Amino acid sequence: MPIQPIPGGVTAARGFTAAGVHCGIRKNADKKDLALIAASVPCTAAAVYTQNLVKAAPLAVTLRHLQNGAARAVLVNSGNANACAPGGEEAALRSCRAAAQALGIAPEDVIVASTGVIGVPLPAGAIESALPALAAALSADGGDGAAEAIMTTDLTPKVYAVRFEVGGQTATLGGIAKGSGMIHPNMATMLSFVTTDAAISAAALQTALRESARTTYNRISVDGDTSTNDMNAVLASGLAGNPEITGPGPDYDAFLAALNAVNGYLARQIARDGEGATKLVTCRVDGARDEETAARLARSVIASSLVKTMMFGADANVGRVLCAMGYAGVPFEPAEVDIAFSSAAGRIQVCAGGLGLAFDEARAKAVLSEGEVDILCTLRGGGGRAEAFGCDLSYDYVKINGDYRS
Amino acid sequence: MPIQPIPGGVTAARGFTAAGVHCGIRKNADKKDLALIAASVPCTAAAVYTQNLVKAAPLAVTLRHLQNGAARAVLVNSGNANACAPGGEEAALRSCRAAAQALGIAPEDVIVASTGVIGVPLPAGAIESALPALAAALSADGGDGAAEAIMTTDLTPKVYAVRFEVGGQTATLGGIAKGSGMIHPNMATMLSFVTTDAAISAAALQTALRESARTTYNRISVDGDTSTNDMNAVLASGLAGNPEITGPGPDYDAFLAALNAVNGYLARQIARDGEGATKLVTCRVDGARDEETAARLARSVIASSLVKTMMFGADANVGRVLCAMGYAGVPFEPAEVDIAFSSAAGRIQVCAGGLGLAFDEARAKAVLSEGEVDILCTLRGGGGRAEAFGCDLSYDYVKINGDYRS
Known about the structure:
homodimer, 406 residues, alpha+beta, nine-stranded mixed beta sheet, seven-stranded mixed beta sheet, 11 helices, globular
């Protein structure tokens, strides 16, 4: 059975419910700002975090709570990052205790995360007050509500789930994510929460998550800013009944493929919905010395402000792509680079052997005007290939970030 | 005698003339696109170049021409980068030969540079045709014309000169520069040409230029894109009559101080006139472990899209400054960071010990609304200090770069 998309997101897998409510952190009462995901049974759990030296308080709390590789709930607020503000850890702990009390579990089994403005104290009281109602609202249909509640400047909720086969059983894996701003490789400013009913040990889950984040979330760039709050966490309930995955093998590979399918989809959704973005831009590099070299080149192209504005203007200025490859800080032979742009409107080669080609401007404009555009860079240096995901840079990015707090 | 600003730019020093004309590379006949700087005597010369792996053809030619540390002229075109296009080196050589013939000097004594669109063949014929008239137009008043001719999306020409004392003589040092887009540390997309009548050996000149570029041009960021064409070259005629500077000592220090004064001024002008910029933003970091750590932190703040849009919106969102320090990739203690914003409208502290402070929003808005704003970050990690220069990110940056070629 191939991996199949199914509805349901973070509540698609057996054993999980979710809900999202407005608790008052955000001024707008119509905007949900608190999400809860709960498991009916003890789960193995794993997480990866931002590599920013300045880390939000909930990350420190979650890191401690996951030391035993187990968890039963995820509590997330939007509207406040709980970073660089007094009393941050205590506010995060209070949130965990309130969730634990409402769910009848231990506070150490709660994963806590925040997103929003930095430097303002988190109103933990609002979270505490909202938790009884939030816990009461948990349901198997609540994945979308949770996805909405974690959004900041996101325009659309990000939800995806798949069904796959592992160890002779049918398992499910699904997730929700938020992105939009402060999005850059090495976790991006994003939150992503995945649940699965596959049985997998905490150690194998951590390995799979790290491997998957490397080629999905860590290959996104919206604005070059790595947030203080990034977190990608996974809970596994084991209710699919497959023999527990504990290390390398076909079952691990099947699980990783499903995890990559969900994380890859959510990562592209985050790039597509970057602040002010009008299109998803993917850069694929083939023929680099190795995968890491390919990834560095692809990310440098995706992160370039000049490439991003060119994509916004649908102006096929290939020199900017070559230039961004040139300052990526990895070795390649500029005279061996071929570049093409590709989209639903067709494919047009604009560079061969490191030299710009004459091309039909109108056709190039048509190719670059689509909602999803690929930049295809082919080298002759080896077998390394990688993709990176980003978006264009528009007037709206400036507008959104020129006055984010108001 | 302290260092004193004087008029004249690149023709202020004894022995130099300059001119700028329209030769036809640009469509607009009113926009000068070819500049020539000539020395009346043989000069020692030095240059530093972009660190982009993809290098424009004129850089390779200039590198060869400067191997003997001597030059007598600088030829620069705007409107075409002569990068990633067929026949680039031959076009650069033809330009040098035409300049040499018009001036009666050897082609190897010509420094050649280009700026403009990448990937389009340079029309060397237009340069050859224009050179007799350009050489005839050379004058001691021509520095401004040359400064205009090297502009691309720059709004203002960048010109500065100083008088200083060295070895008992009064010497002069002045320059012109262009910037605007593809501006980032490690030379930025910028060209800068400096002349001096101080006597200094080629080796000492190269050392001084490298040292000066490190703390001036390499501390600018407009958009994070390091160009394929950056070059900063210096010619020294020796006509001031000071004993030749050949190595460390008070005379070298006096020369370096003058070079830093001119390069520092031009660097700030480039940042102030970044594409779409409405203000000059300077980040000063004090108390870092060492100067390099301070410089990395300051540049990370200056380069952050979120800090740049916040500066455009005059919104004192200090979390973005802390966040950008956190992903700079250098060690510091987040809990020891104090941050203030400062401008002609006053100074306001917004962060103490890594935690955001409550502050008067109206006053902060006033401070950030000035044309020059400083971000002051004070650590307690040591004696390292550094400044980095940049600008805000505005709607106009997107507009300019969404359709640069048209």
